[in-house]
Amino acid sequence: MKLSAWTVCIYLMLCLGVPEISVGQLKPGAAHLAPVKLPPLSVTKFEGTKTTVHLPAPYVNDAVDGGGGRYLIFQLQDKKQLAIFDVVEARIVKTLDVNSDDLAFAAGADKLVVLLRDQHQIERYSLQTFKKEQSEALPPDSPVSRITIGAASNGPILVGAETGESGHPYFLDLITLKPAAIQMSEESWESIEGQNLMVKASANGRIFCLSQSGTDPTFGTMVISVEGLQAHVRYSEDMQGFKIADEEYLNVVLPGPEGKAIYTSSGTRYPDLLRLDKDTEYKPISFGIPALQGDLCMALVSGSSSIQIYRTGALPVLLTLPDIWSKERWPDYKAGLRTAHARLRFVPDAHVISFLPESRDEIILHRFDVDAALKETGTDYLFVTSFPTRDAERGDTYQYRVRFKSNTKPVKYKVMNAPVGMTVSPEGLIHWDVPANSTSDKERVYLVLESPSGKRFMQTIAIYVTYKPGVLGEPPDNPGRKSRSSRR
């Protein structure tokens, strides 16, 4: 297949890591391929271990993350305003006037997008200057009523409708605010419809998870993966969550920030919906809430106001933090599971966990430094926090850089049961030039870490070896699922 000049340019820029490229230099519709510039994240600036910040008015709908977790954005009740809360400054830094109270909004690395539903208008603001940069009219009959963006991304923007026969959802480009240059098969899409449907994006904007709670479990779970200029849709009718009452289901599916894992009611899975514990040493936990950065997650503790910290949604528990939320400010545990992802946020680089009470008029910030907390336990610890790269193409290079936490360093690395040619560097970079004629469809590798104190940790890495797209012998793509109407 012959590549156009602009595609080659993008490929070289991404592979070589050239930092000067900007969204304005890309072909219209490909802004999501530009390198991301995040605002700096430092330790949150408040005294003591806890503080409460009052909002100028209660907010409606859920708060939206932006700036890679630095900003929380609220739509203020009975006001045509959005309040932008800076997690580092621990204060509202801007109250933004908008020309409607019938809104949907979402934020990326440094942009805020506002949909004025009643005016069929979409607008983009800078999260640096807080000024409006662009406005585009949508067709009068446009069904768009919800928008979703990765909080640390340059898009794309996934748009869809709340109710009715809305046709297929699609992507908008973050810069042009017009359809993105992302190809997809319309037959792959389910209608984004229903008030109880939840749509969440990974922070890097590469994974979008769709799930639905309520009395109609037929939607199941959908994951949309954006790879370059192609969108792939994976669907499971069986992933309906679990029953919390007669004919009422709770199905909460959240993507991790790097788009390598998704968190579900039944445990953590790969984006293609395969369970982690099928291939690896991960032991599943239910209803994990991923941190906005890195490889840690949280979960509620039944019968208490505590939360527990895990690595990428897997046992064992690393830390338990008491009194993060209170029953006076939140309903019972089972009902709390429904909204925990909207109430709790963990920003590791800012050393903060935020709790948004049900009153919707304040933000409670808890100072939490995971490294300091681990040291305070006084125990010897070593564990991997990074999530391994899973897929490799024949004839390409596989790489995975391990991240870990240990109270003693330096740590030594070793790979066991590795394919011929796979190496691991003293810095923890696994490298494998995958043979073009490889006959293996799957490799199971064991990465062993050892600290100076003798503490050892083993991570199981499952690598699925695939053919390059378009290469003779590639298995056909056959999702084998029925349409929504035929499943009812």
Descriptors:
single chain; 488 residues; mainly beta; Methylamine Dehydrogenase, Chain H; Immunoglobulin-like; 3 domains; 4-stranded antiparallel sheet; 8% helix; globular; disordered N terminus; disordered C terminus
Cα-atom radius of gyration: 22 Å
CATH homologous superfamily heading of the largest domain: YVTN repeat-like/Quinoprotein amine dehydrogenase
Question: How do the strands line up in the largest sheet?
Answer: 1-28-27-26
Q: Which CATH architecture of the largest domain?
A: 7 Propeller
Proportion of residues in extended strands: 35-45%
CATH classification class of the largest domain: Mainly Beta
Tell me the span between the first and last alpha carbons: 41 Å
* Count of helical regions: 5
* CATH fold title of the largest domain: Methylamine Dehydrogenase, Chain H
What general outline do the C-alpha atoms trace? globular
Task: Give the averaged pLDDT, no decimals.
Answer: 85
Sheet with the most strands, sense and barrel status:
4 strands, antiparallel
| Count of β-strands | 37
State the domain count: 3
